[in-house]
Amino acid sequence: MMDRWQLGQYGEEYAAATLEKNGYTIVRRNFKCHGGEIDIIAKKGNTLAFVEVKTREAHSMVSGFEAIGPRKRAALVQAVRYYLWSFPQPDLQPRFDAVQITVRQDGTGCKVVGFDYRKGAFDVE
């Protein structure tokens, strides 16, 4: 069985691979700065997607989307602002996306049983 950190890594790998299969280019992963982290930064067309990945087991009480509350959103906004200040992207439109991955673990490993991707998951004030 995977621990919580391993489960998160598994979900991020799965999300990145799925984004690439759907025409996105992964620009950066796990961008960290004071106050926040961005799981995946991906480009497609003129959009730069800042993707928060939440991986949950099928029996979890709280969905991945529910786990992105006001405090997490504020940290994401801060991290994105810092990223765009550090690496200006004037030709790209930033967007906050979120992905919820549901998995089932058993003695043979981990299997994805749900993948829900939301473009424009929330707006920035």
What does this structure look like?
There is one protein chain. Helices cover 28% and strands 42% of the residues. With 125 residues, it is of the alpha+beta class. It has a single domain, classed as Trna Endonuclease, Chain: A, domain 1 (3-Layer(aba) Sandwich), CATH 3.40.1350. It has a five-stranded mixed β-sheet. The chain is globular, with a radius of gyration of 15 Å. The mean pLDDT is 92.
Corresponding CATH architecture: 3-Layer(aba) Sandwich
Strand elements, count? 5
Order of adjacent strands in the largest pleated sheet: 1-2-3-4-5
Q: DSSP strand (E) fraction?
A: 35-45%
**Helix and strand pattern:** HEEEHEE
Mean of residue pLDDT?
Answer: 92
Label the structural class: alpha+beta
**What is the share of helical residues?**
25-40%
Low-confidence stretches: none
| CATH topology call | Trna Endonuclease, Chain: A, domain 1
- Structure annotation, total helices: 2
Terminal Cα span: 40 Å
When the domains are counted, the total is 1
Radius of gyration: 15 Å
Coarse morphology: globular
Biggest sheet descriptor: 5 strands, mixed
Q: What would you call the quaternary organization?
A: single chain
The CATH C-level class name: Alpha Beta
